[in-house]
Amino acid sequence: MEAVVVDTDVVSFSMRRDSRARPYEKFLANCVPCVSFMTIAEMRFGAELARWGAKRLEAMEQALKHYTVLPLDDATSREFARVGAEQYRNGRNQLNRSDWWIAATAKSRGLRVLTHNARHFEGIDGLSVVTFAKVEGS
């Protein structure tokens, strides 16, 4: 089975039982779902910011156990530097650096990213992105 790095938005859709999660969950039925260490940090940050209670925090932690967490390592750190420098040179330095970490996690392992926000990953050389978001105007 193919491993794929699931972006934070898709993880969040699934946890909230958002209808946008359906095509991603169907796709993941034939994959090994992985997340970057950064997605774990983003999810926990959002929960802290929203001041979730213990029950909701525990539900989130249980949901996150369905993913293989890909840790920060030297190869990911080096890829982050390349992605970030490339984005700066191309005038895309205003994007969320969390997405750079997710892209670097995927690229350093030769994996695709599954996201609802493909535009966040545009212009990253060598990164393969899968999305089921409807394209505006179509």
Structure description:
By secondary structure, the protein is α/β, with parallel strands linked by helices. The chain has one domain: Rossmann fold, CATH 3.40.50. It has helices spanning 8-16, 22-28, 37-49, 54-64, 74-89, 97-109; strands at 2-6, 31-36, 68-70, 112-114, 129-130. The radius of gyration is 15 Å and the shape is globular. The N and C termini lie far apart (32 Å).
Strand order of the largest sheet: 3-2-1-4-5
CATH homolog superfamily: 5'-nuclease
> Which fold does the CATH topology refer to?
Rossmann fold
Count structural domains: 1
User: Strand count, sense and closure of the main sheet?
Assistant: 5 strands, parallel
Fill in the keyword field for this structure.
five-stranded parallel β-sheet; 50% helix; alpha/beta; Rossmann fold; 138 residues
How is the secondary structure organized here?
Layout: E1 2-6, H1 8-16, H2 22-28, E2 31-36, H3 37-49, H4 54-64, E3 68-70, H5 74-89, H6 97-109, E4 112-114, E5 129-130
Parallel strand pairs: 1-2, 1-4, 2-3, 4-5
Compact summary:
By secondary structure, the protein is of the alpha/beta class. It has helices at about 10-15, 20-30, 35-50, 55-65, 75-90, 95-110, and strands at about 1-5, 30-35, 70, 110-115, 130. The radius of gyration is 15 Å and the shape is globular.
